[in-house]
Amino acid sequence: MKFLVCISNVPDTTTKITFTPDNKEFNKAGVQFVINPWDEYALTRAIELKEAQGSGTVTVLNVGEADTEPNIRKALAIGADDAIRVNAAPKDAWFVAQQIAHYAKEGGYDVILMGKESIDYNGFQVHGMVGELLGIPTVAPAMKLDMSGNTATLEREIEGGKEIVEVNTPFVASCQQPMCEPRIPNMRGIMTARTKPLKVVEAVGEGAATAVAEYQLPPKKQGVKLIDAANAGELIKLLRNEAKVI
Amino acid sequence: MSVLVVVECDKGEVKKSSLEVASYGAQVAQMLGTTATAVAVGEATEANLAQLGEQGISKVLFDNEPRLKDFVNGAYTKLIAAAADKEQAKVIVLANSNIGASVGSRLAVRLKASLATNVVELPKTDGGQFTVKRGAFSGKAFADVVLSGERKIIAVKKNSIEAQHNGGQTAQVESFSAQLSDADFADAPKQVIMQDQAGGILLPEADKVVSGGRGMKGPENWHLIEDLAKALGAATACSKPVSDVDWRPHHEHVGQTGITVSPNLYIACGISGAIQHLAGVNSSKVIVVINKDPEAPFFKAADYGIVGDVFEVLPKLTQAVKELN
């Protein structure tokens, strides 16, 4: 079975977010980039399923410029077999979805996995767009994924519960916890990753459907009002009479 | 041309987040000089749909197909696309829920529309551009996004817009068929399992949340969180370390890699306030922090704070709420 895992390159979760002086772009200076944490579930689960099946391949795909290659190599070190980098800055979800759909179709993949969203743009869009472009089902967000032959059983999270869904390949799923325990690279993986194939291809399709005009930081809090622990009940009065939230 | 609003229903009732969506859509319609039509998904009743008039909806399209009770991506997408075409909708508004965003992303491709998810404010239409503000960087920032497509789809984040209630107005409920076939239900769920929610309040829908961290010392102490939540009518939540060690289920994990909440009131008990946790809660209107460590970083992000032992403070708060009620 051929797995395609889409990964994005995002600022580490501990990053303090700042923007360029015109507020049009994220300020990358001094920022550590990592594989999007949600994508790690997709990657590890694909590798686990391939190992369980005893055959098949896991290909990682990233839409990004050359500076994303360290994280693509990291995905190869974790256990993917080969990689595709679409050589373009990811303009928006529609742009990225067109790349994934094009190269997924070209490669004839059975299962297309990705994280439920990226932690930088938080779109929760790409999986649905890829599924629609390819005319195949999308299951998002999936908390569990098992395969039996060409049939997948997934748990999809819905508000307040979950659905058990069965789909046949090919399909798209976006992944989140507790699907698996994301793996970290070991020394042997890091060594073999250096020689695994990483193909660089050009972008296809139309441009973006949206554009960011400006970024803003959330307004700062006024400062905390402290209430004496011995007189904790006072807080409840303030929440009712001053903050008016209860 | 009208604005199309997608309302999610559950057990006959329109979800609270969808009342907000309906109000949002009605206000957009007013800005554009048109009317707002809703299309219902989930288990709905005609009487409850008619009440969407209170949110400013003039008409509701209702497909009485029983299989639409549960979320089926293929069928929902086809239904909403058919409604959008019937109404010649240029703007489609839905909830930024797992259902709304799943369907919205497929619709964007099918209808060749520009899509913005996680939207927190009404659009701006000055200068001939259609701009919406959306949350980005997992709650650490906002982005103003220009939607350039002729059609636009907006997924509205919960608790960002106040649901309006204009008493006495009713919407006209019109039966509508999208001619759904068995093939549209190919990805229908085999089974739907709903969680037991403490006090019956869903965390993503809650407007008050009481949340516990490692400072609670163990799952056996969670009754203190639950008691306060019950008294307040709040949902319960937890930090990542707590769900990682299985003290609480993962669907209660709030933070950058869990769920993002934006209630009116968020009470954090024994949570130090790591940057990843703050990202998940910092759009809450009022944040209360209870922690015995006065240096806990969460106090910097809080509106009210108590430096003290959660095991002593929580029962006092619960008692005070009961006295107030």
UniProtKB/TrEMBL annotation, chain A:
Keywords: Electron transport, Transport. It comes from Hymenobacter gummosus. Residues 23-210 form the Electron transfer flavoprotein alpha/beta-subunit N-terminal domain. It comes from the Bacteria. This is Electron transfer flavoprotein beta subunit/FixA family protein. One of its GO terms (molecular function) is electron transfer activity.
Automatic annotation (TrEMBL), chain B:
It comes from the Bacteria. Its cofactor is FAD. Residues 3-192 form the Electron transfer flavoprotein alpha/beta-subunit N-terminal domain. Keywords: Electron transport, FAD, Flavoprotein, Transport. It holds the Pfam family ETF. GO terms for molecular function: electron transfer activity; flavin adenine dinucleotide binding. FAD binds at residues 214, 270-277, 291. One of its GO terms (biological process) is fatty acid beta-oxidation using acyl-CoA dehydrogenase. The keyword Flavoprotein applies. Binds 1 FAD per dimer. Belongs to the ETF alpha-subunit/FixB family. This is Electron transfer flavoprotein subunit alpha/FixB family protein.
